[in-house]
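User: Here's a chain of 156 residues. Predict its fold as tokens.
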Amino acid sequence: MTVNRRQLVAAAALVSAGVSVRAFAQSTDTAGDTAAVTEAVSNLTKAMLAADKAKLQALTADELSYGHSSGVVQSKSVFVDVIANKQTVYKSIELSSQSITLAGSNAIVRHSWLGESGPADGSKWSVSKLGVLQVWQKKGSDWKLLARQAFPKPAT
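Assistant: Prediction complete.
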């Protein structure tokens, strides 16, 4: 079989177009996933402030490892129960300087946390200024918090 230049150019154009379409589709998916992770982080913050057990359970993976800046690490059930049973009440949570890096079906989220929390009776509120690393995992079309670690931010 003999291939002429026109056929070769046509084949190259089709291959190139296929690559471009795939790259465009991937960049569109990336933008959609980044927006979905941003929304999931926001929804988790709202669920923590509202002590909403159902939403906390829905937004977290069964394998959750939730690390506090104090070194305490909680499983999903402990994390959800402490908030839902108001052993810790969040009065305010403000996140800033957020970045999201997608890595396959995972997302790495970093942000600064400024929060005020305390016991249900409000007897002793404490302010926390932290750095936070979260790992979110895509399960089906949903993003679930798989891991979180907070750390004290150095004074600036």
